[in-house]
Amino acid sequence: MTGLEGQLAAAFLLDLLIGDPRFLPHPVRLVGAFALHVEHLLRRWQRLPLRAAGIAAVIVIVGSTVGVAQLLLMLCGLVHPLLEWWGGVMMLYFCFAARDLAGHASAVTGPLQSGNLERARECVGMIVGRDTATMDESEVSLAAVESVAENTVDGVTAPLLFGMLFGPIGAVAYKAVNTLDSMFGYRNERYREFGWAAARLDDLVNYLPSRLTVPVIALAAFFMRLRSAEVLPSVVRTARLHASPNAGYPEAAYAGALGMRFGGPRSYGGIQRNLPFLGIRHGACSIQTVREAVRLMMVTSFLFLMLGIGVRLVMQAVLTQ
Protein backbone atom coordinates (compact mmCIF):
# COMPACT_ATOMS: atom_id res chain seq x y z
CA MET A 1 0.00 0.00 0.00
CA THR A 2 1.77 3.12 -1.20
CA GLY A 3 -1.22 5.43 -1.73
CA LEU A 4 -3.61 6.92 0.80
CA GLU A 5 -4.14 3.52 2.41
CA GLY A 6 -0.42 3.29 3.14
CA GLN A 7 -0.41 6.86 4.50
CA LEU A 8 -3.25 6.06 6.89
CA ALA A 9 -1.57 2.87 8.11
CA ALA A 10 1.82 4.57 8.55
CA ALA A 11 0.29 7.53 10.41
CA PHE A 12 -1.70 5.25 12.70
CA LEU A 13 1.43 3.22 13.46
CA LEU A 14 3.42 6.40 14.18
CA ASP A 15 0.77 7.52 16.65
CA LEU A 16 0.87 4.17 18.43
CA LEU A 17 4.69 4.23 18.59
CA ILE A 18 5.41 7.80 19.68
CA GLY A 19 2.10 9.50 20.46
CA ASP A 20 2.32 13.27 20.94
CA PRO A 21 5.91 14.28 21.84
CA ARG A 22 5.65 17.10 24.38
CA PHE A 23 8.86 18.75 23.16
CA LEU A 24 7.34 19.47 19.73
CA PRO A 25 4.77 22.23 19.03
CA HIS A 26 1.65 20.25 18.11
CA PRO A 27 -0.21 21.74 15.10
CA VAL A 28 -3.50 21.53 17.00
CA ARG A 29 -2.07 23.87 19.62
CA LEU A 30 -0.99 26.24 16.87
CA VAL A 31 -4.53 26.20 15.46
CA GLY A 32 -5.82 26.94 18.96
CA ALA A 33 -3.47 29.91 19.37
CA PHE A 34 -4.52 31.24 15.96
CA ALA A 35 -8.18 30.79 16.91
CA LEU A 36 -7.74 32.88 20.05
CA HIS A 37 -6.10 35.64 18.00
CA VAL A 38 -8.93 35.63 15.46
CA GLU A 39 -11.51 35.68 18.25
CA HIS A 40 -9.81 38.68 19.85
CA LEU A 41 -9.77 40.61 16.56
CA LEU A 42 -13.40 39.83 15.72
CA ARG A 43 -14.66 40.76 19.17
CA ARG A 44 -12.87 44.09 18.92
CA TRP A 45 -14.59 44.74 15.58
CA GLN A 46 -18.04 45.43 17.01
CA ARG A 47 -19.87 45.96 13.72
CA LEU A 48 -20.62 42.25 13.51
CA PRO A 49 -23.21 40.57 15.80
CA LEU A 50 -21.57 37.87 17.92
CA ARG A 51 -23.14 34.98 15.99
CA ALA A 52 -21.98 36.43 12.67
CA ALA A 53 -18.52 37.01 14.16
CA GLY A 54 -18.45 33.35 15.24
CA ILE A 55 -19.37 32.21 11.73
CA ALA A 56 -16.60 34.41 10.31
CA ALA A 57 -14.15 32.93 12.82
CA VAL A 58 -14.96 29.38 11.73
CA ILE A 59 -14.56 30.26 8.05
CA VAL A 60 -11.25 32.08 8.61
CA ILE A 61 -9.70 29.51 10.95
CA VAL A 62 -10.76 26.32 9.15
CA GLY A 63 -10.08 27.88 5.75
CA SER A 64 -6.62 29.09 6.78
CA THR A 65 -5.73 25.74 8.36
CA VAL A 66 -6.74 23.82 5.25
CA GLY A 67 -5.00 26.36 3.01
CA VAL A 68 -1.71 26.11 4.91
CA ALA A 69 -1.89 22.30 4.91
CA GLN A 70 -2.55 22.24 1.17
CA LEU A 71 0.31 24.67 0.52
CA LEU A 72 2.73 22.55 2.57
CA LEU A 73 1.79 19.41 0.66
CA MET A 74 2.17 21.24 -2.64
CA LEU A 75 5.63 22.51 -1.67
CA CYS A 76 6.63 19.00 -0.61
CA GLY A 77 5.42 17.70 -3.96
CA LEU A 78 7.56 20.23 -5.82
CA VAL A 79 10.62 18.81 -4.06
CA HIS A 80 9.82 15.11 -4.52
CA PRO A 81 6.66 12.93 -4.65
CA LEU A 82 8.01 10.82 -1.77
CA LEU A 83 8.33 13.93 0.41
CA GLU A 84 4.72 14.80 -0.41
CA TRP A 85 3.66 11.28 0.61
CA TRP A 86 5.46 11.56 3.94
CA GLY A 87 4.11 15.06 4.42
CA GLY A 88 0.63 13.58 4.19
CA VAL A 89 1.60 10.86 6.68
CA MET A 90 2.75 13.48 9.20
CA MET A 91 -0.44 15.49 8.80
CA LEU A 92 -2.54 12.40 9.45
CA TYR A 93 -0.33 11.40 12.37
CA PHE A 94 -0.92 14.74 14.10
CA CYS A 95 -4.69 14.20 13.74
CA PHE A 96 -4.74 10.86 15.59
CA ALA A 97 -4.65 10.58 19.39
CA ALA A 98 -5.05 6.89 20.26
CA ARG A 99 -1.82 6.59 22.23
CA ASP A 100 -2.37 9.84 24.14
CA LEU A 101 -5.94 8.87 24.96
CA ALA A 102 -4.75 5.51 26.26
CA GLY A 103 -1.92 7.14 28.18
CA HIS A 104 -4.13 9.68 29.96
CA ALA A 105 -6.57 6.97 31.05
CA SER A 106 -3.84 4.52 32.04
CA ALA A 107 -2.16 7.22 34.15
CA VAL A 108 -5.16 6.97 36.47
CA THR A 109 -4.81 3.24 37.10
CA GLY A 110 -1.27 3.40 38.52
CA PRO A 111 -2.14 5.61 41.51
CA LEU A 112 -5.36 3.66 42.07
CA GLN A 113 -3.42 0.41 42.10
CA SER A 114 -1.02 1.76 44.73
CA GLY A 115 -3.83 3.25 46.82
CA ASN A 116 -2.93 6.89 46.05
CA LEU A 117 -6.47 8.17 45.52
CA GLU A 118 -5.42 11.83 45.70
CA ARG A 119 -2.99 11.43 42.82
CA ALA A 120 -5.58 9.47 40.84
CA ARG A 121 -8.01 12.37 41.28
CA GLU A 122 -5.36 14.77 39.99
CA CYS A 123 -4.71 12.58 36.93
CA VAL A 124 -8.36 12.18 36.02
CA GLY A 125 -8.89 15.91 36.59
CA MET A 126 -6.57 16.51 33.62
CA ILE A 127 -8.96 14.77 31.21
CA VAL A 128 -12.45 15.59 32.56
CA GLY A 129 -14.19 18.84 33.38
CA ARG A 130 -16.05 17.76 36.50
CA ASP A 131 -15.01 18.30 40.12
CA THR A 132 -12.75 15.49 41.32
CA ALA A 133 -11.86 16.44 44.91
CA THR A 134 -14.40 14.15 46.57
CA MET A 135 -14.40 11.25 44.11
CA ASP A 136 -13.97 7.73 45.41
CA GLU A 137 -12.11 5.00 43.52
CA SER A 138 -15.18 3.90 41.54
CA GLU A 139 -16.01 7.47 40.52
CA VAL A 140 -12.42 8.15 39.42
CA SER A 141 -12.47 4.96 37.33
CA LEU A 142 -15.82 5.88 35.83
CA ALA A 143 -14.57 9.34 34.84
CA ALA A 144 -11.55 7.80 33.09
CA VAL A 145 -13.69 5.26 31.24
CA GLU A 146 -16.18 7.92 30.15
CA SER A 147 -13.31 10.03 28.83
CA VAL A 148 -12.02 7.13 26.72
CA ALA A 149 -15.51 6.45 25.34
CA GLU A 150 -16.24 10.11 24.61
CA ASN A 151 -12.93 10.77 22.84
CA THR A 152 -12.69 7.61 20.74
CA VAL A 153 -14.58 9.32 17.93
CA ASP A 154 -12.98 12.77 17.82
CA GLY A 155 -9.54 11.44 18.75
CA VAL A 156 -9.36 8.48 16.37
CA THR A 157 -12.27 7.23 14.28
CA ALA A 158 -13.55 10.58 12.95
CA PRO A 159 -10.14 11.79 11.68
CA LEU A 160 -9.62 8.30 10.26
CA LEU A 161 -12.93 8.50 8.39
CA PHE A 162 -12.28 11.98 6.99
CA GLY A 163 -8.77 10.91 6.06
CA MET A 164 -10.17 7.90 4.19
CA LEU A 165 -12.72 10.04 2.37
CA PHE A 166 -10.69 13.18 1.60
CA GLY A 167 -7.07 12.37 2.34
CA PRO A 168 -4.79 14.21 4.79
CA ILE A 169 -6.51 17.54 4.09
CA GLY A 170 -9.84 16.04 5.14
CA ALA A 171 -8.41 14.89 8.47
CA VAL A 172 -6.81 18.31 9.03
CA ALA A 173 -10.10 20.08 8.28
CA TYR A 174 -11.94 17.82 10.74
CA LYS A 175 -9.35 18.44 13.44
CA ALA A 176 -9.64 22.19 12.96
CA VAL A 177 -13.43 22.02 13.38
CA ASN A 178 -13.10 19.81 16.45
CA THR A 179 -10.53 22.16 17.99
CA LEU A 180 -12.84 25.14 17.51
CA ASP A 181 -15.69 23.30 19.20
CA SER A 182 -13.47 22.49 22.19
CA MET A 183 -12.58 26.20 22.45
CA PHE A 184 -15.80 28.00 21.49
CA GLY A 185 -18.57 25.40 21.80
CA TYR A 186 -19.71 26.32 25.32
CA ARG A 187 -23.24 27.28 26.33
CA ASN A 188 -22.15 30.08 28.61
CA GLU A 189 -22.40 33.84 28.51
CA ARG A 190 -19.20 34.31 26.53
CA TYR A 191 -19.71 31.69 23.84
CA ARG A 192 -23.45 31.07 23.53
CA GLU A 193 -23.61 33.25 20.40
CA PHE A 194 -19.98 33.46 19.30
CA GLY A 195 -19.50 29.68 19.55
CA TRP A 196 -22.79 28.75 17.89
CA ALA A 197 -21.27 28.08 14.46
CA ALA A 198 -18.35 26.06 15.83
CA ALA A 199 -20.66 23.86 17.90
CA ARG A 200 -23.18 23.29 15.10
CA LEU A 201 -20.46 22.46 12.56
CA ASP A 202 -18.87 20.01 14.98
CA ASP A 203 -22.26 18.34 15.46
CA LEU A 204 -22.57 18.03 11.70
CA VAL A 205 -19.14 16.55 10.99
CA ASN A 206 -19.42 14.07 13.87
CA TYR A 207 -22.87 12.78 12.90
CA LEU A 208 -21.64 9.98 10.64
CA PRO A 209 -18.42 9.01 12.50
CA SER A 210 -20.21 8.67 15.84
CA ARG A 211 -22.73 6.25 14.36
CA LEU A 212 -20.31 4.28 12.19
CA THR A 213 -18.11 3.72 15.24
CA VAL A 214 -20.88 1.86 17.09
CA PRO A 215 -20.82 -1.39 15.05
CA VAL A 216 -17.02 -1.37 15.14
CA ILE A 217 -17.13 -1.11 18.93
CA ALA A 218 -19.49 -4.10 18.93
CA LEU A 219 -17.10 -6.04 16.69
CA ALA A 220 -14.14 -5.14 18.91
CA ALA A 221 -16.12 -6.23 21.98
CA PHE A 222 -16.85 -9.55 20.26
CA PHE A 223 -13.15 -10.21 19.62
CA MET A 224 -12.34 -9.20 23.21
CA ARG A 225 -15.09 -11.45 24.60
CA LEU A 226 -16.89 -8.54 26.21
CA ARG A 227 -20.66 -7.96 26.10
CA SER A 228 -20.89 -7.41 22.34
CA ALA A 229 -24.55 -8.46 22.21
CA GLU A 230 -25.46 -5.61 24.57
CA VAL A 231 -23.85 -2.82 22.54
CA LEU A 232 -26.74 -2.23 20.14
CA PRO A 233 -29.52 -2.48 22.79
CA SER A 234 -27.60 -0.02 24.95
CA VAL A 235 -27.28 2.43 22.05
CA VAL A 236 -30.89 2.08 20.91
CA ARG A 237 -32.31 2.57 24.41
CA THR A 238 -30.05 5.24 25.85
CA ALA A 239 -27.82 7.05 23.29
CA ARG A 240 -30.39 9.77 22.59
CA LEU A 241 -30.64 10.64 26.28
CA HIS A 242 -27.25 12.37 26.02
CA ALA A 243 -27.30 16.16 25.68
CA SER A 244 -25.04 15.89 22.61
CA PRO A 245 -26.59 14.62 19.35
CA ASN A 246 -23.50 12.48 18.76
CA ALA A 247 -21.55 11.73 21.96
CA GLY A 248 -24.22 9.41 23.33
CA TYR A 249 -23.62 6.83 20.60
CA PRO A 250 -20.03 5.78 21.38
CA GLU A 251 -20.60 6.27 25.11
CA ALA A 252 -23.69 4.05 25.16
CA ALA A 253 -21.82 1.51 23.03
CA TYR A 254 -18.93 1.41 25.51
CA ALA A 255 -21.37 1.15 28.42
CA GLY A 256 -23.02 -1.84 26.77
CA ALA A 257 -19.73 -3.55 25.95
CA LEU A 258 -18.36 -3.04 29.48
CA GLY A 259 -21.59 -3.96 31.27
CA MET A 260 -22.02 -0.70 33.15
CA ARG A 261 -23.75 2.68 33.10
CA PHE A 262 -22.38 6.15 32.38
CA GLY A 263 -23.87 9.41 33.60
CA GLY A 264 -25.62 9.98 36.90
CA PRO A 265 -24.83 12.60 39.57
CA ARG A 266 -21.64 14.65 39.36
CA SER A 267 -20.45 18.16 40.20
CA TYR A 268 -19.24 20.91 37.86
CA GLY A 269 -17.78 24.01 39.49
CA GLY A 270 -19.51 23.15 42.74
CA ILE A 271 -22.89 22.78 41.04
CA GLN A 272 -24.49 19.34 41.31
CA ARG A 273 -25.98 17.87 38.14
CA ASN A 274 -27.79 14.62 37.44
CA LEU A 275 -26.98 13.40 33.95
CA PRO A 276 -29.13 10.72 32.28
CA PHE A 277 -27.82 7.18 32.54
CA LEU A 278 -26.35 5.56 29.43
CA GLY A 279 -26.21 1.77 29.39
CA ILE A 280 -28.47 -1.07 30.44
CA ARG A 281 -26.50 -2.70 33.30
CA HIS A 282 -25.61 -1.48 36.77
CA GLY A 283 -22.10 -2.93 36.90
CA ALA A 284 -19.48 -1.30 39.13
CA CYS A 285 -16.52 0.56 37.61
CA SER A 286 -13.02 -0.42 38.69
CA ILE A 287 -9.37 -0.33 37.66
CA GLN A 288 -10.02 -3.36 35.49
CA THR A 289 -12.83 -1.51 33.71
CA VAL A 290 -10.45 1.34 32.83
CA ARG A 291 -7.99 -1.15 31.38
CA GLU A 292 -10.73 -2.88 29.38
CA ALA A 293 -11.92 0.50 28.06
CA VAL A 294 -8.41 1.37 26.87
CA ARG A 295 -8.03 -1.98 25.13
CA LEU A 296 -11.50 -1.62 23.60
CA MET A 297 -10.52 1.79 22.22
CA MET A 298 -7.33 0.40 20.72
CA VAL A 299 -9.03 -2.61 19.12
CA THR A 300 -11.88 -0.43 17.84
CA SER A 301 -9.40 2.02 16.30
CA PHE A 302 -7.42 -0.76 14.61
CA LEU A 303 -10.56 -2.42 13.23
CA PHE A 304 -11.91 0.93 11.99
CA LEU A 305 -8.64 1.50 10.13
CA MET A 306 -8.54 -2.00 8.64
CA LEU A 307 -12.19 -1.96 7.61
CA GLY A 308 -11.80 1.47 6.03
CA ILE A 309 -8.73 0.42 4.08
CA GLY A 310 -10.52 -2.76 3.02
CA VAL A 311 -13.54 -0.83 1.74
CA ARG A 312 -11.30 1.57 -0.18
CA LEU A 313 -9.36 -1.28 -1.82
CA VAL A 314 -12.55 -3.13 -2.81
CA MET A 315 -14.05 0.04 -4.31
CA GLN A 316 -10.87 0.71 -6.26
CA ALA A 317 -10.91 -2.84 -7.62
CA VAL A 318 -14.55 -2.54 -8.64
CA LEU A 319 -14.06 0.85 -10.31
CA THR A 320 -11.02 -0.30 -12.30
CA GLN A 321 -12.77 -3.34 -13.79
UniProtKB/TrEMBL annotation:
Converts cobyric acid to cobinamide by the addition of aminopropanol on the F carboxylic group. This is Cobalamin biosynthesis protein CobD. PANTHER family: COBALAMIN BIOSYNTHESIS PROTEIN CBIB. Keywords: Cell membrane, Cobalamin biosynthesis, Membrane, Transmembrane, Transmembrane helix. Coiled coil: none annotated. InterPro entries: Cobalamin_biosynth_CobD/CbiB. It is found in: Cell membrane. Belongs to the CobD/CbiB family. HAMAP family: CobD_CbiB (MF_00024). It comes from Prosthecochloris ethylica. The keyword Cell membrane applies. The chain crosses the membrane at residues 52-73, 296-315. The keyword Transmembrane applies. Pfam families: CobD_Cbib. It comes from the Bacteria. It is a multi-pass membrane protein. Pathway: Cofactor biosynthesis; adenosylcobalamin biosynthesis. The gene is cobD.
